[in-house]
Design a protein that fits this description.
Helix content is 14%, strand content 41%. The protein has a four-stranded antiparallel beta sheet. A four-stranded antiparallel beta sheet has the order 2-7-4-5, with no helix packed on it. It has helices at residues 3-9, 66-71, and strands at residues 11-16, 21-23, 33-37, 40-45, 51-57, 62-63, 78-81, 85-90. With 94 residues, it is mainly beta.
């Protein structure tokens, strides 16, 4: 089995609708998202309710709250869909 086939075996495709939140501030983060189609927006909102956009993730880009993911803490940013989005994420057996 080629290494590329093995790699894709551990990913699952997920579809999100425009405006749908993928990661919300304060929630657990357990993966990162690879954008196949569509566009994601990473942002945070400060105490004055001002939004700061950190990233637009377009096809072939990755998006997550990496600080929360790697430090096993809750999200400090949010990610939502600007358009209908298809992404892959690591498959997790439970």
């Amino acid at each position: 089995m080629s290494s590329l086939i093995i790699f894709f075996h551990f990913l699952k495709t997920q579809h999100f609708k425009k405006g749908q939140a993928i990661i919300s501030e304060g929630n657990k983060v357990d993966c990162e998202y690879f954008v196949i189609s569509g566009c994601l927006k990473s942002f945070f909102i400060n105490d004055d309710l001002k939004m700061f956009i950190l990233q637009f993730a377009m096809p072939t880009w990755w998006a997550s709250d990496y600080n929360a993911l790697y430090s096993h803490t809750t999200a400090t940013i949010s990610i939502d869909c600007i358009t209908d989005t298809e992404s892959t994420l690591p498959y997790q057996q439970r």
